[in-house]
Amino acid sequence: ESGLLIRAVWLTWGVVRDHYNRRYFSEKELSLYTTHFERLGLSKREFRALLDAGAVWKQWTPPTGQGHAPSAWLKLQGALTMEGKRTRSFMLITKGSCTVLRGGAEVGRLGVGALVGEREFVLRLTATPESRAAAAEAAGHEPGHEFATTALASVIPAGPVEYVAWPKAVLAKHMARSSYTKACVLTMIAVSQAAKLTATNDRVKKGADELAELTRSMSGSASPKPPTPGRQSPGRQSPKTALGRSSSSPKPPTPGSKPPTPGRASPKPPTPVRVR
After folding, report:
1. Where are the beta strands (DSSP E) in the chain?
2. CA gap 155, 82 in Å, rounded
3. What distance in Å separates the CA atoms of residue 187 and residue 184, rounded to the nearest whole number?
4. For residue 91, with 0-12 CB atoms within 10 Å meaning exposed, 13-18 middle and 19 or more buried, which class applies?
5. What is the C-alpha to C-alpha distance for residues 16 and 140, in angstroms, rounded to an integer?
6. What is the pLDDT of residues 100-134, one digit of tens each?
7. 0.85 exceeded by the pTM?
8. Which residues, 6+ apart, have CB-to-CB distance to 164 below 8 Å?
């Protein structure tokens, strides 16, 4: 009887749970919860409160019917952040991917599960007015510049993308009321920052390896080839050949002969006379 009672309780709980899920969550929200928040220990009730804290689902799809890939201008229209501009939302990518641009050059890519705007959000929570002013001054901005809340890079869609965004001010107030939600969100931010740092280190290591390989190839092509044994390099002569061809080196004197007088030519020996 006890086993039947326990089974009945579990079945009843399953019916109530399914009813709760269908009533309070859409399929998209349930997928978001099971993929990113359930493993961090956030309950469905707390997740429902997190969604109610101003969460907005957004998406960007390239215009159809053009017959070619979307231009950079069109992609900028769907940009999640713009370099040097204030970021007012905390975003989580749920579909698609985005390109990260800094100074007009691509420096990385973000896929499903990546956070956007988390740096500015953390600085909003932790930075004091003095630290913000010091950061702005160190970056060469005016003391009143909101450097701590501006994006360091532009994040633009690489194609169709979908994400959920929370207003930073509303999310910060909700996290101040819920310690569980605050711990969950800060853990997600730490994991995201670690992944981005690892990707950056991999890119730096790859660039260093390519530079070292290029340096080795250039130094190998510039070094002269060693001469072949048994053959003289052009333009160079052995010491024996050089001495043999030199006309300035004097011949050694014959034993018993007198040395020539300086400034006078040596007399020729007389021709012998034959007597008949």
Report:
1. 56-60, 89-95, 98-102, 105-110, 115-116, 154-157, 161-167
2. 7
3. 5
4. buried
5. 58
6. 999 888 888 999 999 999 988 887 777 777 777 77
7. no
8. 32, 55, 56, 57, 58, 91, 92, 94
